[in-house]
Amino acid sequence: MLSTFPGAQLINTMDECSHLSKHDNKFLQIFPVKPLFESCWEKKCSNRLIRWYFKNNRVQNFEFCKGEIRKGTKWTELEDSEIMRSWVIRRSVSVEEQLPNILHWSQITTFSDPIECSPLMEAVTTMQKNNDEMEEMAHVVLSTPLESVVPLGGKIRGIVQAFVQGGIKNYKIFFSDRCASVLTPEEHELVRHLRILIRNQVPILEFCLYAHASRDHQVNIQFHESLVASFYEYKANIEKQFGKVASQLPPGCSIHLSQQKGDERRASSFETSR
């Protein structure tokens, strides 16, 4: 783009820049966005391929995110950590034409005011994203024989084996009495939602391990069993803090490779309490 507009100065944010219109220089505003999936399709359609299509096609709404480090907030007073210093500024953008199209571009029609997302809001967003991604990956492994199982194993490992070094332990402060004393009613609701997401992650991980074990001819036994052992430790820690979590696997299904080899059934559907 810069070669198409020689001499233009790059502006790579959505910050207010109307003052630049008074300059004689040329400016080119380019910033990264991600498509926003219409929630109506998530509710109406359960077919994975159709959902994928509408996540990547006929898109008119996008989101721009920018991270910020803030100190001296009520969150850093609770705990001065990277999690508590990290804020995200989000802005949505709407375009006139659905993308992608023949021209691969469209005029911006509207954009929202900046939304400042606190560390608590980002914790909820991150948990929801991880849960959705893991469940989707497990369904892909079970329904698509040619799909590699390696990304799913890496995703599981990133959750259950990160717990010792951090992971959701970083969110423990949100459930403390000190934190409760400074929360607004809306933030109390976010904490309740975060608690539900953390509990829901346990049966989702179990389902992912079941899907991972279904590829017994592709999966290293030692690696898989290390994931299972880490999962049980992870589950015990979650149940200690948030209460017992019931298994969502159908009867007779196992997350262990040795038992999977004799089990020809596959869990094609999976639901967790939302």
TrEMBL record:
InterPro entries membership: DOCK, DOCK_C_lobe_C, DOCKER_dom, DOCKER_Lobe_C
Q: Which GO terms describe its molecular function?
A: guanyl-nucleotide exchange factor activity; small GTPase binding
Q: Which residues cross the membrane?
A: none
Q: Cite the residue spans of the region called Disordered.
A: 255-274
GO CC annotation: what is one? plasma membrane
State the family named in the UniProt similarity comment for this chain.
Belongs to the DOCK family.
Pfam family name, one: DHR-2_Lobe_C
The residues covered by the DOCKER domain are 1-247
Taxonomic classification, please? Eukaryota, Metazoa, Ecdysozoa, Nematoda, Chromadorea
Q: What is this protein called?
A: DOCKER domain-containing protein
Regions of biased composition (Basic and acidic residues) lie at 261-274
- Organism of this sequence: Onchocerca flexuosa
Please give the biological process terms from Gene Ontology that the record holds.
cell migration; myoblast fusion; small GTPase-mediated signal transduction
